[in-house]
Amino acid sequence: MIRDLFTPTHLLIVAVVAMVLFGAKRLPDTARQLGKSMRILKAETKALKDETPPGEQRTVAGEVLDGANTPAAERQSAEAR
Question: Is-annotated flag, keyword Membrane (predicted)?
Answer without folding.
Answer: yes
